[in-house]
Structure formats: C-alpha cells, structure tokens
C-alpha cells in the first residue's frame, strides 16, 4: 500500500511512495500527529539524483523489519531538499553541529516540537565499515526518548539555541583588501598540476573562478588568469565534462577531473557556462565558447520543459548502475565507428581494454587534440573533422541506451541562474536561440509560478506550482532578468527585476542587523528564521541579493539599493575576512561595489548595422563591472532609467557611447572607432589578443 506521499509531485518523494515506511510529507498532518502522540520525528532529507539516498532507501527503507521499527516508534517525514531548502539549511546545520560533517541522505531525529536531538547522514542497515547500523540507531534513539527524556529535551533546547545564533557574522570594514585576501586563499588551495582548488573529491568553483577573473581585470595579475585557464582547460578535458552530449557532472571523485559523480545539476551547468563565457571574453579562446554552446545546447535538448522552464537534475545512475549511460568499451566503439575511426577515437579519448573506470572507459582527453594530431601525424583540421563525426555517431548510439532518471521539477532559483547564463551567452556569442530560451523561461516563471497576490512560488511540476518562494528564488530570478534586459533592452525585464526586489525589501529584509532572511516574514514558522550567508553549490541568497542591488543602484541611481547592498555585505564582513572562499558570491558583489563600476549608455538606431556592430564589440569584451542601457532614437526610455538616460542621444547620426561612473560621464565616444578606443582603455589584454 502506498504511504502518504502518493499525492506529492516531487520525483524524489514519489520514489519512496511504495516503501513500507509510513512516510509523510512535511506538513500539518504529520506534525500534529507527532504532538498528539508525543512521538519523536524521524526526518529524512535527500534529493532525486543522490546516489547514497537511493542506497539507503534500498537497504533500509525497503526493509520490512526496519520499516516496522520506524513506524512503531516515530512519525516518519520524507523531505526533498530541493523543494524545502529552508528545512535543509536548518537541519543540516544541526547535523554539522552534532557530527562535524554533513551530506545526504540527512537523517535527523526531532522532538515533537521540531527540535533536533540526534543526527547523521547515511547509515547501513547493520553495523559495518565502522558505522553503526540503522537498526541500532533506531533502537538507541527510541530508548533515549523513553528512558532519558529530560536529557534529550535539554540537548534539543541547547542545539536549537545554537542554531538561532548562526548568521551573526558582521564586523570589519568593506574594502578591496578583502578581495585580495580571498585571492590569497585561492592561491594557497590551487592545484597547479590539475587545476581546481583542494584535493579529491574536487568540485568546480565557478564563483571563485569568476572572482579570479575580476582580480586579473582589476590588477592585471596574470597568475590569477592562469589559475582560471588551467582549471577550465583541465575540467573541459576531463571526464567531468560530457564530451558527447555537453554539460558537466556534479564533481570529480579524483584530483584529475577524470571520474565524475555522474549526476548533472542545472545549477552547476548554468554557473559553469557563465564562467566559461567570461573566460572566453577575457582570453578570446574559442574552445571556451564551444564549451558554453555545448553546455547550453545540452540544457535546451535534455533539460527544458515545453512550457519553458528548466529541469533540475539528471541522476548518476541508469539501470541501477552509476555512470552506465556514459561509459564505453573498445568493442562498442568499433561497432559504431568501424575499426579505423574507432582506433583513432580510442587513442584520443583514452578508451582501452583495461578501462579507466570499473573495466569500462570514461571519455577524456589526456592530451589536447593539437598534441594528438602531432603524435598521429595528422593535419589538425582533418583530425578535428573526423572526431566531430565520430562524436556525433557515438552520441546517436548513446541516445538508444536507457537514460538516467531525470528530476523534471522546475525550481525558480536555479532557473534564474540559467536565465542569466542563457541571456549573457546569447548576447556575447550572437546566438539568438539562447536569448529566446531565457525569455521563454522568464515568461513561464513570472506567469505560472505565482500566488494569487503575485508573490512567487518556489517549484513547479506537471502543471502544479507550489511552496512559497525563498530569498534566492527572488534574487536569482532578478539577477537573470537584469541580464535579459541587457541582452534585449526590453524594459519589462528591468521592471520585473525591480518588482521582485521590492518584495525582498518588504518581506525578507532584516532592518535591525542588515541583510536578508531566507524565508519571508509570513512563511511557516520554523524553529529558527535562518539567514543563508555561505555559498554552497549555489550562491547564497544574501550574496545574490547584494549583487542585484548594486547593479540596480548603478542603473537607477537610487541610493536605497546601494545602501541595502552595503548593509548586507557588512553583515557578512566577518566571514569575508575569516573564510573568503566560502562567500565568493558576496566577494563578487563587493568587487562590483568597490568598482570602478561603469554605467554604459549606447545611443543609436537599434536596427542599424553600425549600432549592432558596436553592441557586438561591447558585449564580447570582458568588462564585468558595468551595467548597460540603450537609448534608442525615437523610443521611450524605461521609467526606472530616466536619470541614467536623460540627455543621452546619438551625435552626428552615429552610435554614441556614454561611459559614466556614479552618473558622472566622460566625453561621449562618437562612432565605431572612437567607441573602440574608449573600450580599449578599460579592457586588459588577454592571452589570445
């Protein structure tokens, strides 16, 4: 018999619907039952692409004996962390306090009033590998609740008190010295051989890489640029990148970027596409543009709903085996490509009889294509054409395999990140399909994921939008909408971003301490009202809100935005000093705030070839600390930009660029040549100039 999850929309929750565990979703029914029966709660939090979540389900939650013990002794609640990041943040903090580490599946035992008192992550069903068995954990927690309840309640009260203290990280001043300190930490962590930061398992660090690019831009620090290019080159050559279908896996289990944890997440691919795009702007390296296109094309092909939203994740597993969809054996290559082409492809992409992953092969590039051409005695263009043909054939063959599971829910915050990547890439690369996809996604979110009062909802699947939106939903979407405005100069995107940030002021702002709460003031009451200050795989909501507010302040001239951004940064200043790599997005906001940050206004005829050529030149340059507006001849200025655009028109019938800082403008640059010269003064020389 199905449990209480049958009416849910989350693929992760629905995976557990036929477990013998009597799961409830988080909600009134389960919480009231716990209080009525005075039973503790077993809270299990995971997500659909989580490998060890699947393992624990199979080993323990499908185990009749364990399920019986859970059902008798606890009220069992299953939560999708992607649907309820508010719960995930609070209870992950408690797991880390109790165990010194975190991860998923998260296993937390709560009092009926929702206070945690015991926690862990994955437990095997029986004691093994130095870990207690889940059967022991259940018995031990139940025994403590029945025989030593006073101590349990004391522990839960103390833990909850400590959880309430998280978020007070102010102190110190804001200056560019904080950014220099962050760059120093990245230098210490940098792996000069393989790129990336730290050792295995190795995660991409898009926010850190973007910060390094800005430091290079600010200080002309070639070492900073080198850290970026080495990392991006190694990742793009490694197994973490899907050489046939595009897109990046979650992380690499080794330091070489060879063996990925094969799940693909929307948020990773959006941020990495944006990072490779910035590296392309900085260096002119067309390989980075190729990675951007392939990653976004993967998103359009495999991760986009017909209604316009972008899906969340693809699993690591297919047919119950991690990575099975992606790996190859030499015989499979020969079957698809024939002997000669298969031999060449195997040589280039590291496919051997011995295998590099569990007797099969993850495609990767131990040498560059140029190096392989020299070794093979081939013309580079000839070899590249053959490999492109082979990749297309292998991709077509792979499409016939059983695909990994897909979590097809649409999450506003993650969609905001992809809208930003699509809009910027479309503008920089001249690819209208990406701008169109960003516009379609934005229209879908703003038209469908709404409450009756216009406030955002967090998630959508199969026609049902639900759950009140969180801070990062508003901030990330506003961030994407600003990128869409700069890609299209359609005022509705700017207006929508302003409206979203007004809701953030009205319902999330901490007027006493500065910064923003993760949940709105009318959100369900939880044991603490959390502020997310640390970046995780995604930027913190506070940092993204600060980023958007600086951009809006520079565009509109409203000091209110800049003041709120500064207070949010000051609320995180202690962390920026002590743990800068953990707050890289706030560092990006600080870099934007410290400046110099320019307001660019291009005046011209929108459809004229000269104006379009100027826009293309402007967009392709790496000028991260700018906002861009357009003054079209004969068109009404967006109301929000009245102060910025006043008096700015074409001169002598030619495209005219106004470069301003703090609304104080230099002499206008008139015509292509003058505009190019003005931009040259602001653009450092990259590796490929």
Helix content: 40-55%
Instruction: Count the domains.
Output: 4
Helix-and-strand structural type: alpha+beta
Strand content: 5-15%
Q: What's the pLDDT, averaged over the residues?
A: 95
Please count the beta strands (DSSP E, at least 2 residues each): 19
The end-to-end distance, rounded to whole angstroms, is 66 Å
Give me the CATH fold name of the largest domain: Glycosyltransferase
**What are the low-pLDDT stretches, counting only 5+ consecutive residues below 50?**
none
Shape descriptor reads globular
Q: Biggest sheet, in brief?
A: 5 strands, mixed
Name of the CATH architecture of the largest domain: Alpha/alpha barrel
Lateral arrangement of strands in the main beta sheet: 1-3-2-4-5
- Oligomeric form of this entry? single chain
The first-level CATH class of the largest domain is given as: Mainly Alpha
**What is the overall number of helices?**
27
Radius of gyration: 26 Å
Describe what you observe in this structure.
The chain is α+β, with helices and mostly antiparallel strands. It folds into 4 domains: 11-165, Glutaredoxin (3-Layer(aba) Sandwich), CATH 3.40.30.10; 176-319 and 406-594, Glycosyltransferase (Alpha/alpha barrel); 326-398, no CATH class; 598-680, Glutaredoxin. The protein contains 27 helices and 19 strands. The longest helix is centred in the middle third of the chain and has 19 residues, at 380-398. The radius of gyration is 26 Å and the shape is globular. It starts with 10 loop residues before the first helix and ends in a 9-residue tail after the last helix. 51% of the residues are buried.
């Amino acid at each position: 018999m199905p449990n209480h999850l049958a009416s849910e929309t989350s693929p992760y929750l629905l995976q557990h619907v036929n477990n013998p565990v009597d799961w409830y979703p988080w909600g009134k029914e389960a919480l009231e039952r716990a209080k009525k029966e005075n039973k503790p709660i077993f809270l299990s939090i995971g997500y659909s692409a989580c490998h060890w979540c699947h393992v624990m389900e199979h080993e323990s939650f499908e185990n009749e004996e364990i399920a019986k013990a859970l059902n008798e002794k606890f009220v069992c609640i299953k939560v999708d962390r992607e649907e309820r990041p508010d719960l995930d943040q609070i209870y992950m903090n408690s797991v880390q306090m109790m165990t010194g580490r975190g991860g998923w599946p998260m296993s937390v035992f709560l009092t009926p009033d929702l206070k945690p008192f015991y926690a862990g992550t994955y437990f095997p069903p029986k004691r093994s590998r130095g870990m207690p068995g889940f059967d022991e954990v259940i018995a031990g927690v139940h025994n403590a609740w029945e025989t030593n309840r006073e101590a349990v309640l004391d522990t839960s009260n103390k833990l909850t008190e400590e959880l309430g203290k998280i978020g007070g990280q102010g102190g110190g001043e804001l200056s560019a010295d904080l950014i220099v300190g962050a760059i120093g930490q990245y230098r210490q962590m940098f792996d000069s051989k393989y790129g990336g930061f730290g050792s295995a398992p190795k995660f991409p660090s898009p926010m850190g890489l973007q910060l390094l690019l800005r430091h290079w831009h600010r200080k002309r620090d070639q070492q900073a640029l080198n850290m970026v290019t080495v990392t991006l080159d190694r990742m793009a050559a490694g197994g973490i990148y899907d050489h046939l279908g595009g897109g990046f896996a979650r992380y690499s289990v080794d330091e070489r970027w060879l063996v990925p944890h094969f799940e693909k997440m929307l948020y990773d691919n959006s941020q990495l596409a944006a990072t490779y795009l910035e590296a392309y702007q900085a260096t002119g390296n067309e390989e980075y543009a190729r990675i951007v296109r392939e990653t976004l094309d993967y998103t359009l092909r495999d991760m986009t709903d017909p209604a316009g939203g972008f899906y969340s994740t693809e699993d690591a597993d297919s047919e119950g085996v991690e990575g099975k969809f992606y790996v190859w054996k030499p015989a499979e290559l020969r079957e698809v490509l024939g002997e000669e082409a298969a031999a060449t492809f195997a040589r280039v992409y590291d496919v051997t009889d011995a295998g590099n992953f569990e007797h099969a092969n993850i495609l990767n590039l131990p040498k560059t294509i140029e190096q392989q051409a020299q070794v093979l005695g081939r013309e580079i263009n000839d070899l590249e054409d053959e490999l492109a043909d082979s990749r297309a054939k292998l991709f077509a063959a792979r499409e016939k395999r059983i695909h990994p599971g897909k979590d097809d829910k649409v999450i506003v915050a993650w969609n905001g990140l992809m809208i930003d990547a699509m809009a910027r890439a479309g503008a920089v690369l001249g690819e209208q399909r990406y701008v169109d996809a960003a516009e379609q996604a934005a229209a879908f979110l703003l038209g469908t994921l709404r409450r009756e009062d216009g406030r955002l909802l967090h998630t959508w699947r199969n026609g049902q939008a639900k759950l009140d939106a969180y801070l990062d939903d508003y901030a990330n979407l506003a961030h994407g909408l600003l990128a869409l405005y700069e890609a299209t100069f359609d005022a509705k995107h700017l207006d929508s971003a302003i409206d979203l940030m007004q809701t953030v002021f009205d319902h999330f702002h901490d007027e006493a301490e500065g910064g923003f709460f993760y949940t709105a003031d009318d959100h369900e009451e939880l044991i603490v009202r959390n502020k997310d200050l640390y970046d995780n795989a995604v930027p913190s909501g506070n940092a993204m809100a600060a980023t958007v507010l600086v951009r809006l302040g520079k565009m509109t001239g409203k000091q209110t935005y800049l003041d709120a951004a500064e207070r949010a940064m000051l609320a995180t200043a202690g962390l920026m000093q002590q743990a800068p790599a953990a707050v890289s997005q706030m560092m990006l906001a600080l870099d934007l705030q410290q400046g110099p940050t320019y307001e660019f206004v291009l005046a011209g005829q929108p459809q004229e070839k000269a104006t379009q050529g100027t826009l293309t030149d402007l967009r392709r340059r790496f000028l991260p600390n700018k906002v861009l507006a357009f003054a079209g001849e004969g068109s009404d200025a967006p109301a929000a930009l009245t102060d910025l655009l006043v008096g700015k028109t074409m001169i002598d019938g030619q495209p005219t660029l106004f470069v301003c800082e703090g609304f104080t403008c230099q002499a206008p640059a008139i015509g292509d040549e003058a505009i190019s010269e003005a931009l040259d003064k602001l653009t450092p020389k990259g590796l490929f100039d």
